[in-house]
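Q: What residues go here?
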């Protein structure tokens, strides 16, 4: 059965958007409208003739509306196979009328949770009858059309449906109920029962954008956001200009935003990222000053990079950024002059997030491996001065402590093994992703020397700097490389069986060293 003429439609929606217009279009084709509670009231208020669900079933809505559509005259009208003699005989015997179209969207469970409602209210917003009707109609899609998305109302407003449409509606409907059940299951496990790692994890994602390709042109890719209400992030940012983001743009822009967000309550700060690693980070009296210092850290890697800032963009900063080719700029906002300057760079993508995510927020991270997934909580650990333990004879100065904490914050976002030199609120050199910590320390020092030569400084900024290591120094050699580079203070987790050797080497070199008791591996 391909084309099905709609003779009876059941409308029961939580989101009333567009329902009156749909009801009017269906009524114009002589279609009988059957509805429930609030939906029926809205349709009648618009002057439409509506049959109550209780009139169809012969039973009143009861138990505060919990029981109204769970009835054979509803589900029989949905599930009966048209043309099947036995089914049609049962319909005739029990006065069950066929229903050709069901329009349902479900109670706002996720929105209720998001607004912080109490437990009883959340439970009342678990829809039972709606998903049941959706599943019944979708199962019998050979004859029945099920519409769960107001965006699809126009497709049924003509009074009939095709088999191809009904199949697509059914697929979309089951996806909607699966997502809905997944959100409920997750709430029960995580929020209600406090299970950080429940026996089964239900992940519901909604495709936002198909991408040209993945990390490489031979890979396919798409961007998905979490179903239901989501917080601010790269996926929710407003793209002011530029071509569509690529897979790598999303990944790098997210890395830049996460690091910039660490300074959401700090001074103006600029972050430059390349291949998911920061190549320059700096704070300053102004955003333009911060960007200039971050750029000076590695002027080569900054070309074609991703920039994130923790303040609204102004003209001066925009002028500096447009001095070289930049892929993406991420900011909470931008003034009109900055936007106008960027408009001249048609290949530059400007993303405005409206807010910066909280670096201390909870959440889970997942990574696929062969045969399964690894799931862990976000690395939302934050270290303050009060958490530090001085382990050397020399106490760090206030400036050294500030530089230690700055370097430590940046190192958290550098691929392991990570070494970060910082001085006066700016990175001096960054060593990322090496197989041993000594090489990372050497590379970071070499990059600082190279930066000094390119910018024209008499000495590299590692002289008098603080150095951060994302994990403990297993041997003193990495620390001695930092000494050779000119560092005067060290911040590291501690916890190695050779801590005493490393501390002794620091004392001999006159360094101040603090332990955090926390590491930040980032693979």
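A:
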């Amino acid at each position: 059965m391909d084309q099905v003429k709609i003779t009876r439609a059941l409308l029961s929606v939580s989101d009333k958007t567009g329902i009156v217009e749909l009801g009017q279009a269906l009524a114009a084709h002589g279609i009988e409208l059957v509805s429930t509670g609030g939906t029926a009231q809205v349709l009648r208020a618009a002057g439409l003739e509506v049959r109550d669900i209780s009139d169809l079933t012969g039973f009143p809505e009861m138990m505060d509306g919990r029981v109204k559509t769970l009835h054979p005259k509803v589900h029989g009208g949905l599930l009966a196979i048209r043309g099947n003699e036995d089914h049609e005989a049962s319909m005739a015997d029990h006065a069950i009328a066929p229903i050709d179209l069901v329009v349902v969207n479900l109670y706002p469970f996720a929105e209720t949770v998001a607004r912080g409602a109490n437990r009883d209210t959340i439970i009342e917003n678990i829809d039972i009858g709606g998903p049941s009707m959706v599943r019944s109609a979708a199962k019998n899609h050979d004859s029945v059309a099920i519409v769960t998305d107001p965006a699809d109302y126009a497709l049924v407003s003509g009074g009939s449906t095709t088999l191809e449409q009904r199949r697509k509606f059914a697929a979309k409907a089951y996806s909607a109920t699966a997502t809905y059940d997944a959100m409920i299951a997750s709430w029960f496990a995580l929020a209600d029962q406090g299970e950080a790692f429940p026996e089964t994890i239900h992940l519901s994602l909604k495709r936002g954008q198909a991408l040209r390709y993945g990390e490489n042109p031979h890979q396919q890719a798409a961007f998905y956001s979490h179903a239901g209400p989501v917080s601010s992030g790269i996926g929710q940012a407003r793209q002011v200009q530029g071509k569509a983001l690529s897979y790598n743009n999303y990944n790098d822009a997210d890395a830049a935003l996460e690091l910039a967000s660490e300074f959401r309550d700090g001074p103006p700060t600029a972050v430059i990222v390349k291949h998911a690693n920061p190549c320059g980070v700096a704070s300053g009296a102004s955003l333009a000053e911060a960007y200039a210092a971050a750029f000076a850290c590695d002027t080569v890697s900054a070309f074609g990079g991703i920039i994130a800032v923790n303040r609204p963009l102004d003209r001066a900063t925009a002028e500096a950024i447009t001095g070289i080719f930049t892929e993406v700029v991420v900011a909470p906002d931008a003034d009109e002059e900055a936007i106008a300057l960027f408009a001249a760079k048609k290949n530059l993508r400007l993303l405005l997030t409206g807010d910066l995510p909280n670096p201390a927020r909870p959440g889970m991270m997942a990574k696929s491996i062969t045969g399964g997934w690894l799931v862990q909580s976000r690395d939302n650990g934050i270290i303050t001065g009060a958490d530090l333990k001085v382990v050397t004879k020399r106490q760090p100065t206030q400036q050294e402590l500030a530089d230690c904490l700055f370097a430590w914050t940046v190192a958290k976002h550098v691929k392991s093994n990570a070494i970060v030199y910082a001085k006066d609120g700016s990175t001096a050199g960054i060593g990322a992703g090496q197989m041993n910590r000594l090489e990372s320390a050497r590379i970071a020092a070499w990059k600082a020397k190279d930066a000094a030569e390119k910018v024209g400084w008499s000495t590299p900024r590692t002289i008098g700097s603080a150095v951060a290591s994302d994990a403990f120094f297993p041997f003193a050699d990495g620390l001695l490389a930092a000494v050779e580079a000119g560092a005067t203070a060290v911040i590291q987790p501690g916890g190695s069986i050779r801590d005493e050797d490393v501390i002794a080497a620091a004392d001999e070199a006159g360094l101040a060293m603090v332990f955090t008791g926390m590491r930040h591996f980032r693979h």
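A: Context that may help when evaluating the design: The two ends are 55 Å apart (CA to CA). The longest helix spans residues 163-192.
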